[in-house]
Specification:
Elements: H1 7-31, H2 35-50, H3 54-66, H4 70-103, H5 110-120, E1 131-135, H6 140-148, E2 154-157, E3 169-171, H7 175-183, E4 193-197, H8 205-248, H9 253-257, E5 265-268, H10 274-277, E6 289-293, H11 297-302, E7 309-312, E8 336-340, H12 345-350, E9 356-359, H13 364-369, H14 385-395, E10 401-404, E11 432-435, E12 441-444, H15 446-465, E13 471-473, E14 485-486, H16 489-496, H17 513-547, H18 554-574, H19 579-593, H20 598-631
Parallel strand pairs: 1-2, 1-4, 2-3, 5-6, 5-10, 6-7, 7-8, 8-9, 10-13, 13-14
Antiparallel strand pairs: 11-12
Amino acid sequence: MTTPASAADAQLIAHMTRVATTAATAVQAIGEGDNAAARIAVDKLRMHWSTLRHGDTRQLQTRFGRAGSAEGAEALFHGLQVLATCEEVVKLWAQQGFEQAVGRGEALDEAGWHAVLDHLLPLRWNFECDVLLVHGRMPPELAAAIESRGQRRSLLAGPATDTPLPPGCVRIEDEQAIATHFNSFKRLLPKRHVSLDVADGLLEPEAVRRMDAFVGTAVQNLRMSWITWGKHAAMWLRQGLDNLPAAATAPDINALGQRFAGRPAIVVSPGPSLSKNIAALKAAQGRALLIAPLQTLKRLHSEGIRPDFAVVLDSHDHASAPRDFIGDIPDAWLPDLIASNSAHANVLRRFAQARTYYFDAGGPLDQLLARAMSSPWPALSAGSVAITCLRLAHHWGCSPIALVGQDLAFAADGQRYAAGAGRDAPAPQVLRELPGYHGGTVQTAPDYFLFHHQFQSLAATYRAANPALQLFNCTEGGASIAGFEQMPLRDMLQQHVLHLPPLPCVAPPTGTGRSGVRQREIATRLQQAIEQVQRGLAQVASSAQHATQAHRGPAFLTRLGREDDALRACVDRVQYLMEERMQGFDDVLTRWEASEELADYLRGSQRYRELAQAAFENLLVTLNDTLRRVQGRAPVDAAASGPVELAA
């Protein structure tokens, strides 16, 4: 038995039909030998196919296999069949065109470079977001071909020349420039990258390979960050807004850190190798700053070692089963807490007898408050809390900085954590390899592999800015981390820590002036955000009014287009505050932009307005409630409970 297609299914069916029609047009043009028409059709196919998510076809196959519409089943089957045929035809066409272009042995003209791009770019290439990496000097003909294809993100790893670069192309000199550029990317995210070497052998093959690998890793890092953002942004925002009154009036982490400049810091992570040298940390207490993720606290407590600060990065409940990293540790033993402003309330409650200092973890709330505070929280966002600890020690000006228990790999028995620390989980199905601390290679998880890359990138950045900074890896196991000098912990302590006088008790900033200023600044920023959302609601109404007149002629439709563009700009300005709704916006936008009939365009416009109005109204309530709570909280005097008592 079949059922009529739902509205969502109908949109997917229509999109699949467009993909199949475009594929058939490409096959026909190739068969007729019309390369120009074939290229246009193939690029249009790339656009349609890249926006057809794999989950869409999988979802349709599942539903239509049970009791979907006959129309949907037929459209899906036909579309997939046409695509399979088209893919083979296009591959053969691209290969032949490439061989003809390069086989002439002459400098390529623009048509020749088009043939190279046809051969290079996969059929699921998205010209709007995927990344093209060019090595060497970019010929003007290649630049023209890239621009005419609409490629929006290109990197040139080569010398500066007088040749104008195509729009969206950035010349990069090193890995740091790549990382900085990728951090500026917004939606849509790249899924793929391809490399084109036009250096005629003038570049070292190893340098080309290394740059390619770095761009590939940067794409993975970016996607992992945004996938994490998509999964957790709503929780980060909800908990961050709940915590904001306390964070706005909390003692200043920047003033606190000024006391530790030039002192050694040890980041105590919970990796398996921690069991080898944890006892040596007792001698470091009171002389080096001990900074530990929550995951290490139980093991440190059992060894009689109290860190100076505990750090929590993510927003999960790490004070309750099954992720309880604090357990029955007495509240009075717990050190002061360095917390992201979206930390879970149960974690913050466990540290109620200690002080809590907040930092910028790069979440939605941090974007809201960007540039709002005259003394902003330090930006310590990272993929791993251990990297946040490293960034904190560097922010405070500590030197040297040593890593302990930072294996970034599995132990021989498959464990991720030292006994009594962390919470072990099953090993992933896909494993990666890293260079070992003691030589050879070690096995690691995909997320650890990316964290390893981030540690190395930070080390390179810190060393470039301050060659005198000393970074040590005293893990004595796990993975080797480039940029960190390997040294047994006892030797590092003997050379850099044990001769130092004890760290004194450090009085925190006194009075409420600083937190009072921050409280007023945050309240002002919240009021600005409220006004921004109100303008968005006004734009929804304006767009709806123009939509009623769009059928009257081209001029009225053009006005509606301008109103819709303005509405999309309003959504873009606050999208980080409503991430849980953005997939719905993206789905509507994908179909809307592909519409070719007026009726389809107007339906897309209406659906987008409906989503925007619901999102804005919900956000307005949330921001108004948060503003009232921030304005109603009294600032905290950080000195009220005495000095910061560092471990003795």
